[in-house]
Specification:
With 439 residues, the chain is α/β, with parallel strands linked by helices. It has 2 domains: 129 residues, Enolase-like, domain 1 (2-Layer Sandwich); 297 residues, TIM Barrel (Alpha-Beta Barrel). It contains 13 helices and 16 strands. It has an 8-stranded mixed barrel, surrounded by 6 helices. Strands 1-2-3 form a 3-stranded antiparallel beta sheet, with helices on one face. The termini are close together. The structure holds 2-phosphoglycolic acid and zinc ion. 2-phosphoglycolic acid (PGA) binds next to loops.
């Protein structure tokens, strides 16, 4: 437990869940945890291009909200989880999470719901921080040294996040050469706005309609075209050499009968790898997430070996799951973890995944979900654990900007030393701070 528990200020006195809405208008779980001297609340995010191995979100089914209601998950918190947590220390994150795992009793948390458990888990951490008079990121580890992650902003949306027929899901800009986080956001916004004007000029007014993560979603003819656009925009805005590109293919979403459907063609894994190698040669790409479908450890491994300088990130492949991370490590399948706490289903399991990644020299990118909310926990967690990268969509729509704004506040108000991860984005720190567990 984190220091401070001895006084009993962090004893949990009440837990209450309610149903609120995510950014797609679907219900999600919000949990409020009250402790003796503080409180915290958190909202479970929700994916669209979810990995099949993720911890399971519990949905009610039936007619209400098209089957997407979370009344059962809410009731599981109020009737099963909450009463058991009362009287425990909010700072005992590992104890709280393992009790919830035990109450659920399944490997994938489908009985009580990963949405119920993760929201409670995050709310406990926020309550613990408040009891100790700390900000969430300070409680999670960033007290003396504060590292602000590089924003990987998804300015062009495709895949399951848009209806434009573009196979690749995310085209991100990463201002690793900015001097500080606030400058990185200035670069990102200037690129986002200039891109919007250029798209309108070429594709007409409807081309700046946005996808689920706030990025533009015009009808591109090929997966290469967005990169050509972005390259021009970066040059025009004066950020060349400081802003680089990253992709998330979310390749499981266009994988069918052993082939990848890209630009009207059916590609073998080898042909898709060649397309990606070509793009890496032509454009300043520093990171590629899920270049192949979620079971393709072997194809990931050959690609990672062939491109030692590119960060290869596992999202659907790893689902923030330590067992799958170990398989990927054995096979050399990738070299970075995408961190989504709701894939693991609890905070301490998510932190364990980060620890495994760091111990093995991997990078880590913290991530929002396409269905997200005003909750900024993921940004606080990134700073707390010294994670050098955060993806939270485009600099548009409140559920996306709330995370970036949280980082702007941390950068402005931190009293200790503040660094921008910048070019060290893959590994600004070498181990997870132990403060949150009091070790
Ligand atoms: P999701 O998308 O939240 O819809 O899964 C994000 C991602 O694939 O990284
Ligand atoms: Zn992804």
């Amino acid at each position: 437990m984190a220091a401070g528990w001895e006084t009993g200020a962090d004893l949990i006195v009440g837990v209450r869940a309610i149903e609120v809405l995510d950014s797609r208008g679907n219900p999600t779980v919000e949990v409020h945890v009250a402790a003796k001297r503080g409180k915290g609340a958190a909202i479970a995010p929700s994916g669209a291009s979810t990995g099949i191995f993720e911890a399971v979100e519990l949905r009610d089914g039936g007619k209400r909200y098209g089957g997407k209601g979370v009344a059962t998950a809410v009731s599981n918190v109020n009737k099963i989880i909450g009463p058991k947590l009362v009287g425990m220390h909010a700072t005992d994150q590992v104890g709280l999470d393992s009790l919830m795992r035990k109450l659920d009793g399944t490997d994938d948390k489908h009985k009580l719901g990963a949405n119920a458990i993760v929201a409670t888990s995050m709310a406990c951490a926020k309550a613990a921080a408040s009891c100790l008079g700390l900000k969430t990121h300070e409680y999670l580890g960033a007290r003396k040294r504060v590292v602000i992650p590089v924003p990987f902003c998804n300015v062009i949306n495709g895949g399951k996040h848009a209806a434009n027929g573009l196979a690749f899901q995310e085209y991100m800009v990463a201002p690793i050469g900015a001097k500080r986080f606030s400058e990185a956001m200035e670069a990102t916004c200037s690129i986002y706005h200039t891109l919007g004007k250029k798209l309108q000029a070429k594709h007409g007014p409807g081309s700046t309609n946005v996808g689920d993560e706030g990025g533009y979603a015009p009808p591109f003819a090929t997966v290469a075209e967005p990169l050509a656009f972005l390259e021009e925009v970066v040059e025009e805005t004066g950020w060349k050499g400081k802003v680089f590109f990253a992709l998330d293919l979310a390749a499981s979403s266009f994988f069918e009968n052993g082939k990848y459907l890209v630009d009207g063609k059916k590609l073998t894994p080898g042909e898709l790898a060649d397309v990606l190698s070509g793009l890496c040669k032509e454009y300043p790409i520093i990171s590629i997430e899920d270049p192949f479908e979620e079971n393709a450890f072997g194809d990931f491994a050959s690609f990672t070996k062939k491109h030692p300088k590119i960060q290869v990130v596992g999202d659907d492949l790893l689902v923030t799951n330590t067992t799958r991370i170990k398989t990927a490590l054995e096979q050399g399948a990738c070299n970075a973890l995408l961190l989504k706490p709701n894939q693991a289903g609890s905070l301490s399991e998510a932190v364990a995944a980060v620890e495994t990644a760091y111990e093995n020299g991997w990078g880590v990118m913290a991530s929002h979900r396409s269905g997200d909310s005003e909750d900024v926990f993921i940004a606080s967690l990134a700073v707390g654990l010294g994670i050098g990268q955060l993806k939270s969509g485009a600099p548009a729509r409140g559920e996306r900007t709330s995370k970036y704004n949280n980082l702007l506040r941390i950068e402005s108000f931190s009293e200790g030393s503040v660094e921008y991860a910048g070019k060290n984005f893959r590994r600004p720190v070498t181990s997870v701070p132990k403060l949150w567990r009091g070790e």
